[in-house]
Amino acid sequence: xxxxxxIKVSILILFLLVSFGVAAAAAAAAxxxxxxxxxxxxxxxxxxxxxxxLITGDVGTNSGANSGFGLPTVLNGTLHNPGATTxxxxxxxxxxxxxxxxxxxxxxxxxxxxxxxxxxxxxVYTIGSAATLAGNLTLDAGGDASAIFIFRINxxxxxxxxxxxxxxxxxxxxxxYWVAEGAISLATGTVVKxxxxxHAGAVSAAA
Length: 207
Fold this sequence. Notes:
mainly beta; single chain; eight-stranded parallel beta sheet
């Protein structure tokens, strides 16, 4: 059997026909509402798993079909088809996106490339184009467990093979958000910490 793809990140996919910090580390994390227990979710569009995967958390779609979540994939959660539950998740996810988009920017100067051993502190980073992650990126909370990291990308977001986000000095995955207006693509061996939200594109992860 091939190596399993281990989903180590909350991947929340938001497809919409119309178009989710810190201000001095004081902002609260976005409220995901009923989406908080989902590892993978799409508001509009089918959800498919094409690898032998280990997924912890609920999975579902509010529009379309779920496929590829049977054996040999192991799902430690509930598979949700469109219905009352997924309709509420879609509403809560849109609210979270809107909340994250209103947090004031603290850094509009970071390059579109992240990683290569760099360390960044809490803040709201905005990138005006597609962005990438290559190598290690350390998120340093400076001893503040409430520190928020929000990365807003006006385009697609992709990672290189074996890239890794490292949490340091009290940083928590629950307070890390990557919001892309385009598709999100995670290369083989990528280790991601936090919530990924693709506003108008798919999220994919290679085994």
